[in-house]
């Protein structure tokens, strides 16, 4: 960022207030520091004499151009009633840095610094100020729909501000996950990856995002049940009917018909559970010939 300067008088003796940057983004719940430095006026001319000046008051205000008189301030060196979230890290000589802790959405606005001397000739405010935009963290996905076996990247971002390096922690259903990057890679996905994911600035749970719900669908199995024709050796299923009537059996001399419950057929192959059930049921070789059919149940 660039420094923001403001001068009251021309020449080397002029007073200045310098903000390190003119605007910044802040994540709700985080701590923000506004670096600021000032050079006060040393003296002023009156009746042909140089009268020395001394700074007697420093203050920061929000959304006011001059910060003078009865303007509400977030920090005032003359006041004992101070908001604890706003801490003055500066002094009365050169440093005017302000720290804002646990920043809130209502803190969004322009902050300005003012110095006041023991004579009004030394009063000065840099009206440029520092604009703070306050954002909530947001966890989102690069895919709108996810399914089993895919890879997905979850992002921890804000709506409008871009952070070059954001150290965050991720949580799933309230439990901490490894890693501290703004992107969380998941995959190949299984149903166990389903859950609510949220992110927060590292070491500051006050900044936690609203949860992002990730739902991974289980691979669906065929739920048909009824009479299945399957090969006696390969167990490959070739025909299914709700009953055995009306089936041409002349070409099915190597096949057996058997009743199976739901979930026993996967990709037209009998499941291991179904095969074991059939082995246990058939104790003698089953013969199928001409138009005669032996049905084992």
UniProtKB/TrEMBL annotation:
Stretches assigned to the Ig-like domain? 10-131, 132-215
Under SMART domains, the record lists: IG, IGc2
Q: What Pfam families does this protein map onto?
A: Ig_2, V-set
Report the Gene3D superfamilies cross-referenced here. Immunoglobulins
What is the protein named? Ig-like domain-containing protein
Organism of derivation: Poecilia mexicana
Origin organism lineage: Eukaryota, Metazoa, Chordata, Craniata, Vertebrata
């Amino acid at each position: 960022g660039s420094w923001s300067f403001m001068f009251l008088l021309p020449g080397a003796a002029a007073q200045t207030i310098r903000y390190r940057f003119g605007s910044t983004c802040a994540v709700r719940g985080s701590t923000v520091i506004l670096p600021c430095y000032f050079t006060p006026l040393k003296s002023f001319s009156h009746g042909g004499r140089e009268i020395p000046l001394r700074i007697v008051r420093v203050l920061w205000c929000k959304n006011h151009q001059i910060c003078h008189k009865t303007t509400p301030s977030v920090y005032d060196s003359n006041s004992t009633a101070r908001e604890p979230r706003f801490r003055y890290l500066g002094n009365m000589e050169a440093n005017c840095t302000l720290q804002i802790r646990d920043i809130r959405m209502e803190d969004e606005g322009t902050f300005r610094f003012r110095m006041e001397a023991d004579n009004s000739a030394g009063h000065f405010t840099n009206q440029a100020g520092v604009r703070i935009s306050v954002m909530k963290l947001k966890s989102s996905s690069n895919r709108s729909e996810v399914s089993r076996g895919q890879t997905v990247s979850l992002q921890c971002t804000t709506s409008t501000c871009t952070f070059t390096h954001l150290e965050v922690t991720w949580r799933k259903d309230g439990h901490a996950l490894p890693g501290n990057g703004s992107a969380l890679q998941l995959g190949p996905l299984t149903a166990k990856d389903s859950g609510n994911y949220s992110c927060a600035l590292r070491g500051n749970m006050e900044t936690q995002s609203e949860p992002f719900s990730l739902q991974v669908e289980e691979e669906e199995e065929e739920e048909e049940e009824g009479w299945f024709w399957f090969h006696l050796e390969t167990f490959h299923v070739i025909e299914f009917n709700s009953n055995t009537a009306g089936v041409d059996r002349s070409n099915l001399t190597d096949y057996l018909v058997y009743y199976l419950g739901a979930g026993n057929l996967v990709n037209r192959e009998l499941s291991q559970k179904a095969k074991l059930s059939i082995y246990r049921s058939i104790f003698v070789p089953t013969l199928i010939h001409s138009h005669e059919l032996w049905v084992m149940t």
